[in-house]
Design a protein that fits this description.
about 200 residues, alpha+beta, 7-stranded mixed sheet, disordered C terminus
């Protein structure tokens, strides 16, 4: 069972939007307002525009489980205002729009995408992977904790997604292919695939 990561293309935008709609419906059934307009989430059209911009910038990836699209993640250096400080942004990559297709839940697709974000951080000489999670989605918070993230803080009430999580890149064991030729800046060599 292999999870691979490939750069997303503009042709993947319908797939990414479908994943967002699928996951929003699943969350709603479970009693969460995450990503809903009622919960102050972005309408799908605004989400699609944001992902389209990230696609143009080469910031979005598709996870594939045995060759079939299984999830998506966007990684860059930007965040909503008032979430992370300038110095926090300067030393990290920021994860956005991580969604796993429900058909592949429990198959470590999310774990592999987060490891990819860590590999990008290491390549860019950044020490942290940071993200904001829906403030009221405590199951999601528990997921990130299981994946080795810690809650840095909750950033007031500026929006619905203010639970700020972070994980230092040194806490991942990344395979050598994920971080070619860079190593870990005077630290132990990169040896194995991510795992928590």
């Amino acid at each position: 069972m292999t999870v691979g990561i490939r750069p997303a293309t503009l042709g993947d935008l319908p797939l990414i939007c479908r994943l967002r709609v699928q996951r929003t419906a699943w969350l709603t059934i479970r009693g969460s307002d995450q990503w809903t307009v009622a919960g102050r989430g972005r309408p799908i059209e605004i989400f699609a525009a944001a992902v389209g911009t990230a696609l143009d910038r080469g910031e979005t990836w598709i996870a594939e489980f045995e060759g079939e699209p299984a999830g998506t993640i966007t990684v860059n250096h930007r965040a909503d205002p008032d979430l992370w400080s300038c110095w926090e942004l300067a030393e990290s990559v920021i994860v956005h729009f991580m969604i796993v297709d429900l058909r592949f839940a429990g198959r470590q697709v999310g774990q592999r995408m987060l490891a990819h974000a860590a590999a990008l951080a290491v390549r860019e000489h950044r020490d942290w992977v940071r993200l904001d999670a829906w403030t009221g989605n405590h199951e999601l918070h528990d997921y990130y904790r299981r994946e080795g993230f810690t809650l840095a803080r909750v950033a007031g009430s500026i929006g619905p997604s203010c639970a700020l999580f972070e994980r230092h890149t040194d806490s991942w064991l990344l395979d050598a292919e994920a971080v070619p030729a860079l190593g870990r800046r005077d630290k132990a060599p990169v040896t194995a695939e991510a795992g928590s």
